[in-house]
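go over both lines:
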Amino acid sequence: MTRPRPKIVDVSEIEPNTRRGGDLRALLTPTTVGATSGFMGVAIVQPGDRIAEHYHPYSEEFVYVVCGQLEVDLDGEPHPLRPEQGLMIPAHMRHRFRNVGDVEARIVFHLGPLAPSPPLGHVDTEEAEPAAVAAEGAGAGGSRS
């Protein structure tokens, strides 16, 4: 059996996924590098924007805040997230990330184990809002859920 070769993937090589809000880029995945136990990426969230609420039925999610001021709602309860903090989100827990600061926020995320197939790995529990609508909502009291 041949083992996968190491591979470096630059964030600029990955098309942004903005369907759920923010700019999500899954860098190290089964498709990009042959990963077999999970996948890793970066989320870039502009001020006033958010990543819509969702959960992962098969995977734990590990998050590390690189920069910016975020709030994460865990099963509806808000928690502040600051740079250099990590968070482990158990499987099945609903979560939403909101940039509550005035600068871009960046988080690194890793999910594992992998779901049996990609469509089964992520369950949306709300629709994403366009960034402009989210920014307007932030000025009117913050919560946009």
Q: What stands out?
A: Strands lie at 23-28, 39-45, 50-55, 60-67, 70-74, 77-81, 86-89, 95-99, 105-112, 123-124. The first helix runs from residue 30 to 33.
